[in-house]
Amino acid sequence: MKSIILFALLASQTALAAETCFNSSSARSWKYDHHTRTLQVRAAGGNYDIQTFICPELPWARKIAFKSFFSSRVCRGDEVLVINAWDEVVDRCRIDSVTRSVN
Predict the structure, then answer these.
(1) What does the pLDDT look like over 43-98, one tens digit per residue?
(2) pTM: predicted TM-score of the whole model, two decimal places
């Protein structure tokens, strides 16, 4: 039983390490591509494309922030916070995927 739990823990840690993530404090700029419905973020280490689940306010965001569950690393499952001109969070969008952009 202990070996099964240990194997499951190691497998999940390996999958987490292989996942594409970036440090939220290294994000320098962002733009939303209406055609592909992709949030493009420039951060240290490259450019990243973020797909979210339904996020109706994201195309009109004045600012964004990230809410990460484990650290300052932004990964799949974390959230994009959509902030309006009055610095109010108007939407929370769960991240479906983070991939490194080719451009």
Answers:
(1) 988 999 999 999 999 999 999 999 998 888 999 999 999 999 999 999 999 999 99
(2) 0.78
38 in a domain, yes or no?
A: yes
In terms of residue numbers, what domain contains 50? 19-95
Asked if residue 1 is part of any domain, the answer here is no
User: Which residue, among 92, 31, 97, has the nearest Cα to 66 in the 3D structure?
Assistant: 92
51, part of any domain: yes
Helical H segments across the chain, by residue range: 2-18
Q: How far apart, in whole angstroms, are the C-alpha atoms of residue 25 and residue 66?
A: 9
Q: Tokens 């996942």, residue?
A: 19
For 73, the token pair is: 């690393």
Residues 6+ apart with CB under 8 A from 53: 93, 94, 96
